[in-house]
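--- STAGE predict ---
source: upstream dedup step, 1 unique chain passed
mode: sequence only
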Amino acid sequence: MFTGSKFEATKDLKTKDIAKLIRAELNEISTTRRKGDRFEFRVRTGRSGWMSTIDITITAKPEDFPIHNRERVQQDLNHVHHSHAPWMAEEAREFIARVEAIVNAYNWDKSDPMTDYHNSRFFQCVRFWHELARADREKAEAELAPRDTIPVPANDVEEEPQVSFMRWVGVEV
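--- STAGE serialize ---
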């Protein structure tokens, strides 16, 4: 149960107006970098049943900002199926928490999960755009993937891939 620090000043505003204020605050934190090397956001409002929603999608990020935890990506590449490493990088988790703090300043929540009672000003969702996250994952995999490749045979005659592999591992053919 909490009441955000900016709730009292904005208690008579509609969700769309609150989204505009949140968008302005997000633009302030994203303009600390030069264009093309900064965060960009999409802020949308809607309704989910009887509740209002504010969805924030991070659509652009600086090139050097990781979304995926490199340790977890390496474990996934090595087929470690019981990893306890978080999938999101520490910097990304901290940034999501910073954006959620901005949103929570306008929200209030009087929910009681013990009795399955939900009561808040609006639902919220903060996430990275799936295409942005996919591109970051592919970049991490490319950086961490093994560099070993099967060598091309020295002669000009094309060999079957199985024969080439057998020669590569040292089996006489």
